[in-house]
Amino acid sequence: MSFFFCFFRDEAEEDYDPHLHRQVSKPTNNIETLVHLLKCSLGTGILAMPQAFARAGLVTGIIATVLVGILVTHCLHVLVRSQYVACKHLRVPLLSYPDSVATALGCGPQVLRKFARPAALAVDIFLVVYQLGICCVYIVFIADNIKKVVDSYYVIAAELHMLIILGPLIAFNLIPSLKLLAPFSALANLMTFVGLGIVVYYLVIGKKPSAKDAPLDLWGSIETFPLFFGTVLFALTAVGVVIALENNMKTPKAFGKPLGVLNVGMTIIVLLYVAVGALGYVYCVSDCRDSITLDLPEKDPLATSVMVIFAIAIFISYGLHCYVPVEVLWKGYLLPRVDSSSPQKVRLCEYALRVGLCLLTFILAVAVPRLGLFISLFGALCLSALGICFPVLMEVCVTFPQRASAARTIVFGKDAILFVIGVIGLLAGTYTALDSIIRSFAPTENA
């Protein structure tokens, strides 16, 4: 396999530009790509930012969100550049994330080359776990918001709300094509923008009654900071989206420029997250729930409409996010093992996979109905690896064949520091989130 060999740069390879050989049926311009990037970053993550600020403190939350935003943006640049170099090595216009990692490690130090195939498998695992984690978060989010709306009329457990929406979720997840999901996606995007505007309106004009006399925590606690880190990573890091957007651009070289799509988009996103996080924390202080929508006034028609809007929008987004693990597992691992001579059997197996993944996310959501902790867990576990560790590892490997120089040494040192940060974030964030989940089920002292 060519993935496991270092490709030395001859003159022909230097002349090969993957961007010039991409054949995209409907490429997007810079503005369209920027809009897509913004749309993909406005979901449950931004609604969880007030609770994240409650865990980190107001001042720490603002500073740390900006720093994590810079870190994430840099690592996304590193990922896109490294993927470009990997494409040049293989002289192909496009590579998937797992194939890019395998190709990069194949060009790195001898000790890393034997990990090329396991690394590609690890990326697939992290991608599938992350996307299924998002689906779990979505189920809990929908149930929690519907419950708050319905509780005014009839009180039932959140788990029953999850069971009620399970059938529609399975049916929606059986839609096999992204093209068929596109109209629903457009509706979800519109509803999300409208809902977010109403949420900001409430955060600006008032304050949660239980928080009127509560003091603001400016600096937070080191014990809960890993939960904040996981939430911010979950909210800001859209690895798969960034790769897909750059691959589909009419002018992909404009994506990573100093004033290009990625920098402009991430600047806007970070500012939005800081604003919603800070305003939401001031609105509810330490009494922040997993989603800021749950802190809005009860029995208020406009606030109720926001919860319904977001519940519908996230319901639609569930099918879009579940599409990714289906594609990875089905095309990469299961389809080659299915008897292709029987189209009906192939279709039945694909539907079984879709239903099985939907049931898996439902079971996890019912077993651990902790929205905020789910967000922190999957952010720390998956995105520390996908958004930090693997990109800097790729950069080290694609830089390794270059002649030794001060610049190469600086890159190695910088990437080593970022890799350590990613590993610490993964371990500390995952441990803290799991520990908090376990303690959330422990009986209280008064019980």
Automatic annotation (TrEMBL):
It comes from the Eukaryota. Pfam families: Aa_trans. One of its GO terms (molecular function) is L-amino acid transmembrane transporter activity. It is found in: Membrane. Keywords: Membrane, Transmembrane, Transmembrane helix. It is a multi-pass membrane protein. GO terms for cellular component: vacuolar membrane. The chain crosses the membrane at residues 58-80, 119-141, 153-175, 187-205, 225-247, 259-283, 303-330, 351-368, 374-394, 415-434. Coiled coil: none annotated. Residues 28-432 form the Amino acid transporter transmembrane domain. Its main location: membrane. PANTHER family: AMINO ACID TRANSPORTER, AMINO ACID TRANSPORTER TRANSMEMBRANE DOMAIN-CONTAINING PROTEIN-RELATED. This is Amino acid transporter transmembrane domain-containing protein. It comes from Euphydryas editha (Edith's checkerspot).
